[in-house]
Amino acid sequence: FKDFCSWHFSQMRKMCGVVEEDYSRAFEFTCKESFSEGRSGAFMFFSADQRFIVKTTSKQDMAALYRIVPKYVEHLKENPNSLIVRFLGAHSITMYGVKLYFVVMLNVFPKFSLSERYDLKGSWVNRHGFNGNSK
Questions:
Q1: β-strand partners of 90
Q2: CA–CA gap between residue 19 and residue 39 (Å, rounded)
């Protein structure tokens, strides 16, 4: 198990009111898992208490997060009402000789029952629009 940028992410957890012991214990129990419906095919699951979301990521995405994390944390300190995702941890684990990278994010809807959910990433694949000139 490897913990990336542990000092910066501990600052993020503190800013979000997450107690270190709660963060560590959040994944001791059965969690709700799912595979991404997106192109990445990432594995994603929620902690048992629904407070946290864990998502696998690529080595390249992990490296990009690693590069920006100091400025990311500083931005959120200066802009606490920002709507960008709250990354609370970045980790890797090696299982059966395969290294998996994953991030832990704060779930903004842990206590809400949603009637609808939208994925806003967008895609141009097999998407067509009306350009105003067609009949």
A1: 4, 103
A2: 34
Quote the tokens at residue 105: 């994010």
DSSP letters along 61-130, please?
A: HHHHHHHHHHHHHHHHHH-TT--S--EEEEEEEEETTEEEEEEEEE-S-TT---S-----S---TT----
Round to whole Å and give the CA distance between 110 and 25. 17
One-letter amino acid for residue 133 of the chain: N
Residue 92 bridge partners (DSSP) = 2, 101
Phi, psi values for residue 104, rounded to 5°: -115, 130
Q: What is the mean pLDDT of residues 40-63?
A: 87
Entry pTM: 0.79
Q: Which percentage of the chain shows pLDDT scores above 70?
A: 74
Compute CA distances 6 → 2, 51, 67, 88, whole Å: 10, 19, 13, 9
Does residue 49 carry a pLDDT above 80? yes
